Amino acid sequence: MEESLSTEVREAMVETLAAGVFTSIETAAREVSLTVALSKVSAYERECEQFRRQYGTSLEAFRTRVEVMTNRDDFAMADDLAVWELAERALQLCGGDASMRTINLRCWPAISQADRIRRSAKK
Fold it and tell me: Is the whole-model pTM more than 0.85?
């Protein structure tokens, strides 16, 4: 689905291109996309680290812990597991490291899906 850019966004892009910051709209779009993707990767890295500290374990050990809970349902832990798994999966698909400033932009679908699911899990 193609979305049109607002006049304000178009004007900002033209001004940026005119200032010589980028050589083309395509370059500008790629750089902005890369910046947004790196920001999301960084957020996923922080989220995974927060879960490791919170539960004092790895994702795999936490998954096992949640799966063997038979006497009670802990929906908060199950939700955390789902969010943690999505964050880890998005990181794997991106093949990137925000601290190294590298990323595979083909990971956008995974990032978008993880964002949608993460937002719904936190409601």
Answer: no
